[in-house]
Amino acid sequence: MIESLLVANRGEIARRIIRTAKRLGVRAIAVHSEADAGLPFVTEADEAVCVGPANPAQSYRNVEAILAAAKSTGAQAIHPGYGFLSENADFARTVTSSGLIWVGPGADAITAMGDKINARNLMAAAGVPVAPGTTDPAADLDAAVAAAAEIGYPVMVKAAAGGGGMGMGVATDEVALRTEYDKVRTFAERMFGDGSVLIERYFPRVRHVEVQILGLADGRVVALGERECSVQRRNQKLVEESPSPAVSPELRARFLAAAVRAGEAVGYRNAGTVECLLDPATGEFFFLEMNTRLQVEHPVTELVYGVDLVEEQLRVAAGLAPTFDPDALAPRGHAIELRINAEDPKRFLPGPGTISAWTEPTGPGVRVDSGYVAGNTVTPFYDSLMAKLIVSGKDRAEAVERARAAVAAFELTGPKCNLPFFAELLENAEFLSGDYDTSIISRMR
């Protein structure tokens, strides 16, 4: 096993990785910005290094500072978490060329999946279903208009280098396309340094279903079930559950087989997620993207499959076999994750502030992965995620009931908070039926 691990991230995911590292006897090293010096992940690490001011570009995305911290602390490996540098192929290469272990997929796999058009083409060649769309970037507005006319409206206008729901717009006709194309291209150039745009068929009623894969040290790729991620606002997930209430055993078999093919097509190692769109009317699904990192929603898979995905990541990176039998994977029960954000529960706009009260719920089947405690300040410099409330039960009904009780028991005051939204959702007839899609929030408002 790896002996010392630097966690190149912050908040709840850094704290969560540190927890597993310490359980395994791995020395855990945190890096942090000046703004995060008082957060739990810093104090719980065996060692911590300040890598810069609040601005992520000067701290959590500061490659030189992070590598200097690894060298000064004698770190053997780097875990990037999610966001920041986690899907930066150049960073992954720099880590390994510096003689450190990279806890993630190889840089070539990150590169291959980082460009959405290249990823689509690779998946199509591997026999993974893809939605109708462009096989090359739409070079200009005229090319985008021509592509949309061939594909048929409505279309999704997407940043080819984007991810995580960012850099996307929907066009129902040519007039809207002209507006969305310029908007997405400008955003992509600013955020990703790449203005390439993809045009793809848009499905007005669709579910977002993803598969957790793990590329093992021996070269095999295994799938650990699917997650339903259709409760979203602005293409950003708020709730995830596993198994998906929309997926039958036959459909699940097709999903998992396609995800394994996707991983094998790029020689995938370590944890990753194959995201798909599911048309509930036809049962067809289409490849959306592959996230070449650990997902925010990984805990629901952990609870249903009885594994610690961070431990498995470390074992793969160290060249070790998994703790489970890859040929005997089977889900048990049901799990739901609610993302507790510092945001208005109606409009979902950020509302940072100092936490005056923080009491986490407890009880059977209740887990909280949090990044804060009372007295900490949620600053405007980073994502608004404060904690993940994960509940599990013998079936979906029990998980929902435990989620209701946990939401009611979670005491959180100071910043704005979306707990009231979850209380509403967990009483919503459409959600409770399991027959919902990505537009469920719009119907609740």
Q: Enumerate the spans where pLDDT stays under 50 for 5 or more consecutive residues.
A: none
User: What is the third-level CATH name, the topology of the largest domain?
Assistant: D-amino Acid Aminotransferase, Chain A, domain 1
Task: Count the domains.
Answer: 3
Give the biggest beta sheet: 8 strands, antiparallel
Given the structure, what is the number of helices? 15
Number of E strands: 20
Shape: globular
Determine Rg (CA atoms, Å): 21 Å
CATH superfamily of the largest domain: ATP-grasp fold, B domain
Level-1 CATH class name of the largest domain: Alpha Beta
Strand content range: 25-35%
What's the rounded overall pLDDT mean? 96
Q: Structural class, from secondary structure content?
A: alpha+beta
Question: In what order do the strands lie side by side in the largest sheet?
Answer: 13-12-9-10-11-14-19-17
The portion of residues assigned to helices is: 25-40%
GO molecular function, one term: biotin carboxylase activity
EC number: 6.3.4.14
Organism: Micromonospora deserti
Keywords: ATP-binding, Biotin, Ligase, Nucleotide-binding
Describe, in short, the structure shown.
The chain contains 15 helices and 20 strands.
